[in-house]
Amino acid sequence: MSRYAFFTMTFCISFGWYWFPGFIFSALSYFSFPCWIKPESKVVNQIFGMSSGMGLLPITFDWSQISYVGSPLLILSWAVLNVSISLVFWIWIVSVACYYTNVWNTGYLPFQSSQVFDNTGNTYKVKKIVNAASDYKLDIKKYLAYSPVHHDHQRSLLCPGYETGLLLSCKRSSFPLQFDHADTPRIPQRKLFIVQCVGMLVSTLSSLGVLNWAMNYIAGICTSAAVNGFSCPYSSIHFNTSLIWGAVGPRRYFSSYIGHSAFLYFFIIGAILPIPVYYMARRYPKSLWRMAVVGLAFGWLIRKRLPNWWSRYNIVLSSAMDSSVGIAGALIFLTIYLTGANRHFNWWGTEVHKEQNTCDWKGCAYLSVPKGRRFGM
Questions:
Q1: Would you give the DSSP letter of residue 255?
Q2: pLDDT tens, 251-263?
């Protein structure tokens, strides 16, 4: 089968299927069925939930969820395994232990969220700590009178490295990475470069146009009330990162006043941990543990056992899935959600996982702040 035929077949199948998780049966996108069985249980929803929980059973039939941070078909197996091991250790073990013992008062917050919170457990109101007359700079008196910035445990454990790098480092160009991907199926590099340049120009102009249109015509955009999930989690993270490292500043954020000074040790841990791993790899280059780890990776197995298929179809499969879901999603939004037609289509499969039914969707915290009180005081 030619690549074009394979692309067309995969595109059509994926395009047709996406109408189910994208509209007809949206619960397929967040298939956290334990939360449906115990919708009001905070612990069950925090452990198995995929909206604000840890996602212990991350089942989904939605490619847009699977490829949310990038297509897994294009990521090297050792990188996937590295992230997976880190996820299990830091999120499923360390975060759970800290969260349910209320370390750093995170028990009063959702298990995970793209938002930051005040010391009453509510979403942080940035307007309360900035002064419009001084070009929206931090007002120290207002900040001290209101609340320090608090966020969930996952960002508490990851933010010292991730968010600092996000603000201080330059994003590496994707051009070299795309050339690496193109080398395996032997795509001519000159043609690839032309496609990259044209794609960059078209995507830049279209992104700006879509952004301006969306901000003016999508009701409730970048809020929890936005239609079809346009809540802008990435933008919220970038904004909150700027709030923490820009307006509030690292000195106040890491102050002992709110207990975040302990995060400074993670810089030391992060600098030390690669050293023993490096020497183990040098000392035991063919050891069983390395072979076992690599052998568990799906990408390695497929590439090793079916190299011709992998070389010929892997990138085509990823492209077909990404493009079909993108086009189907845009079509569903423009024809159904934007016109309001979705209001006439409601059944169990479109509502079982949503806010009015599950604690996961509501973002319930493990502990409740007594009315009129604040935590961490």
A1: S
A2: 888 775 666 777 7
Q: What DSSP line would sit under 84-135, residue for residue?
A: HHHIIIIIIIIIHHHHHTTGGGGGGS-SS-SS-B-TTSSBP-GGGTEEGGGT
Residue 201 domain boundaries: 188-229
Q: Which residue matches tokens 């169990």?
A: 348
Whether 244 contacts 159, CB under 8 Å: yes
- Comparing CA positions, the residue from 317, 316, 321, 319 lying closest to residue 16 is 321
Single-letter amino acid code for the residue at 208: L
CB 131 within 8 Å of CB 142: yes
Together in a domain, 164 and 296: yes
CA gyration radius, the chain: 23
Written as six digits, the tokens of 320 are 């077909």
Ranking 67-81, 144-158, 166-180, 312-326 by mean pLDDT, the lowest is 166-180
Question: Per-residue confidence at 166, pLDDT binned at 50, 70, 90?
Answer: very low
Q: Are residues 81 and 210 located together in one domain of the fold?
A: no
One domain for residues 208 and 337: no
Whether 168 maps to a domain, the answer reads yes
Number of domains in the chain: 2
Q: State pLDDT tens for residues 210-237.
A: 888 888 888 788 877 777 677 787 778 7
Smallest CA-to-CA distance from 229 within 50, 71, 47, 17 is with 50
**Secondary structure string (H, E, C) spanning 154-205:** HHHHHHHHHHHHHHHCCCCCCHHHHHHHHHCCCCCHHHHHHHHHHHHHHHHH
Classify residue 369 by its DSSP letter: P
Reduced DSSP (H G I as helix, E B as strand, rest coil) percent helix, strand, coil of the chain, to 5: 65, 0, 35
d(CA 266, CA 160) in angstroms, rounded, equals 7
How confident is the model over 240-260, as a mean pLDDT? 78
- pTM for the model stands at 0.76
CA distance 208 to 197: 17
Both tokens of residue 296? Answer: 């568990």
The tokens for 89 are 């250790």
Q: What is the dihedral of CA 357, 362, 366, 368, to 10 degrees?
A: -110
Cα separation, 199 vs 18, in Å, equals 24
pLDDT at 21: 93
User: Is residue 159 domain-shared with residue 208, that is, in the same domain?
Assistant: no
